[in-house]
Amino acid sequence: MLAKPDWRSEAPVSDVYADLKLAYPGFALDVSLHLPGKGVSVLLGPSGCGKTTVLRALAGLDRARGRVVVNGQVWQDDGAAGQPFVPTHRRTIGYVFQEASLFAHLNVLANLNYGRQRTAQNQQRISLDEAADLLGIAHLMARHPDSLSGGERQRVAIARALLTSPSLLLMDEPLSALDTARKAEILPYLERLNREAGTPVVYVTHALDEAARLADHLVLMEAGGVRASGPAADLFARLDLPLSQIDDAATVLHARIVQHDPSYGLSQLDLAGLPLWVGLAQAPVGQCVRVRVLARDVSVALSKACDSSILNILPVVIESMRHDGPDKVTLSLRTTPREGACGACGSVILARLTRRSCEALALVPGQAVFAQIKGAALMA
User: 3-class SS at 58?
Assistant: First the structure.
């Protein structure tokens, strides 16, 4: 388990702090969290590990023991005199459940107004039109929930939660009840929510693809505790964590779109000064995007090939190696950025090789090599 942070030390006042303990027969929750006050923090882990319990405790729905501070406001402090505990209805939260939970007898507009009217007018930070535009639901206002698709209902539920102008938006596996097509429909709206709404989100899921696509900060949970917590890109790349041990182990890279080449169906990205080619992106030039690179799609060469069909060949340094049984080795590779480029520390890429190849090339930590990326999937 991760050592508990001293989150009472100097840290941004806008961040989210939670030190929570709760016990049921056969289950005990004991977590200390320090989450950034912006972006999406994803709680990732298997069913039964305590993710939803944490979310409900943050909302005050489950009475855990401990302390919760959000944006400088103390919602709970069982160690203080008087034991202040702010009840759920007085916490400035929005809560989105697995099911949309819309009022069936109200149309979409009335459902949204229900959320907006919970907040005093002088405290409203987002208008109905802004929420409708952000979630792409302006054309649905006159319809009732039973005439909406699952993805549409969930987008309305998210907009309703946003219209309470929350200081924290809690989302409990909001895509778990949707099929693959509906998930693909709603994910771009969640990404836009992350970029534009400015409301910090705590998002619970057991789905790795959702975490990779949405998480800025990642919390890995198991058996009621925290295994690791930190920037999502860092945790996906760590060889000591289970995320790097699965068949679909991958790293998530952050890059900026430089140009589009429609004639070849490609877009060029800038990865800390290094060119990275991916399939044609819909996002405009200049926008930052996420790219997922599977470890099995990365090979290593001692020199840069000039006659290869592989478009992405990047200079890297082997940071560490992990032997995965008698036949495979996983490498942690750090890119070598061009001098003066932003992100001078480079990005980490995982590569999964056969042990025979690794020994034939005499690969060792600290060695400068080239990563050959067969495929890089734009997460959009």
Answer: helix
- Chain centroid to CA 100: how far? 21
Domain 250-378 classification at class level: mainly beta
The residue ranges of every structural domain in the chain are: 16-244, 250-378
Buried b (16+ CB within 10 A) or exposed e, 332-368: bbbbbbeeeeebeebbbbbbbbeeeebeeeebeeeee
Helix (H, G, I), strand (E, B) or coil at 268: strand
Q: Do domains 16-244 and 250-378 have the same CATH topology?
A: no
Q: Which residue has the tokens 């702090």?
A: 17
Helix axes 180-196, 150-162, angle to 10 degrees: 20
User: Kind of pairing, strands 201-205 and 217-222?
Assistant: unpaired
- Asked whether 369 and 357 are in contact (CB, 8 A), the reply is no
Q: Of the candidates 100, 35, 87, 30, which has an alpha carbon nearest to the alpha carbon of residue 59?
A: 87
Residue 76 and residue 67 in contact, taking contact as beta carbons nearer than 8 Å: yes
**What is the pLDDT, as a whole number, of residue 5?**
46
Nearest C-alpha neighbor of 234 from the set 321, 347, 333: 347
pLDDT in tens, 143-195: 999 999 989 999 999 999 989 888 999 999 999 888 888 888 888 888 888 78
pLDDT value of position 286: 93
CA distance 1 to 230: 14
CA distances from 191 to 12, 34, 39, 132, 288 (A): 24, 22, 10, 15, 12
What are the two backbone dihedrals, phi and then psi, of residue 153, each rounded to the nearest 5 degrees? Answer: -60, -40
> Residues of the chain with pLDDT > 70: what percent?
93
* CATH number, domain 16-244: 3.40.50.300
Distance separating alpha carbons of residues 36 and 41, to the nearest angstrom: 8
Cβ of 86: how many Cβ atoms within 10 Å?
16
Q: Which residues of 226-259 are buried (b: 16+ CB within 10 A; e: fewer)?
A: bbbbeebbebbbbbebebbeeeebbbbbbbbbee
User: What would the pLDDT profile of 236-280 be if each residue is shown by its tens digit?
Assistant: 999 999 999 999 999 999 999 999 999 999 999 999 889 999 999
163: left (phi over 0), alpha (psi -120 to 50) or beta: alpha
Closest CA to 347 of 323, 319, 328: 319
CB atoms within 10 A of CB 1: 13
